[in-house]
Amino acid sequence: MRLTIDHSTANGALMLTPAVIAEVTAGIDNPSDARITAETSLYRVAHKQRYDRASASFVANDAEAGLRSPWWTTNYFFNAAVWANDDPDMPGAARQAFAIHPAWRSDCSNYASIYTRCDLSVWYGLGKTVTDVDPATGATLAMPGSAEVLQIYIPGFRENFARWGQFARVIAFESSLGNGRGFQGNPPAGLRPPT
């Protein structure tokens, strides 16, 4: 992977670190680089509970856990994946669109939204197929990434979400989408909705 634009942003120095490259190439097919501007609205699937391997049980997730992830998408793509289809099972639609494998034991019952405080460097592209063992059946299950939903990876966001994001919330799925704030238009060309 190589950078194609200027990344003099809050996190630009992290774009080519080995840990970032490993995580991005594991989750995104043919990733591209971009810059998102301050006040860009971003959305992601979040979870009310997570599986704790040490205790082999489910534990409640705090709201910040839904914000700490480096994996996001834009308003347009999140809306298309979750709200703009006729599937009444919004968590299920989100799981399918973002290839959230049952092996990760996440409930996909919440979504998180933020808008960025500063310009940030990102990797983006279509999600890869995830193959793992389904804990319910014990069989191998492949979950293909959606060919219609761009995923965004923000290097360093896990550690810096409180400095780089604001008006953040994590709530249960509902029938409408919006964080009431944030820049919805004119994202970098690669992140724009299809026309």
Label this structure with key terms:
single chain; 195 residues; alpha+beta; seven-stranded antiparallel β-sheet; two-stranded antiparallel ribbon; 4 helices
If you had to describe this structure to a student in words, what would you say it looks like?
This protein has 195 residues and is α+β, with helices and mostly antiparallel strands. It is 18% helix and 32% strand. It is built from four helices and eleven strands; from the N terminus they run H-E-E-E-E-E-H-H-E-E-E-E-E-H-E. The protein has a seven-stranded antiparallel β-sheet with strand order 1-7-10-5-2-6-11. A two-stranded antiparallel ribbon has the order 3-4. A two-stranded antiparallel ribbon has the order 8-9. Strand 3 and strand 4 form a beta hairpin. Helix 2 crosses helix 3. The chain starts with 17 loop residues before the first helix and ends in a 23-residue tail after the last strand.
User: Measured on Cα atoms, how large is the radius of gyration?
Assistant: 16 Å
Strand order of the largest sheet: 1-7-10-5-2-6-11
Largest sheet: 7 strands, antiparallel
Task: Give the overall shape, derived from the CA principal axes.
Answer: globular
Number of helices: 4
- Bin the strand percentage: 25-35%
Task: Give the ordered list of helices and strands.
Answer: HEEEEEHHEEEEEHE
**What fraction, in percent, of the residue positions are helical?**
10-25%
The secondary structure category is alpha+beta
SS elements, strand count: 11
Mean pLDDT: 83
Quaternary state of the chains = single chain
Gap from first CA to last CA? 28 Å
Question: Low-confidence segments, ≥5 residues, pLDDT <50?
Answer: none
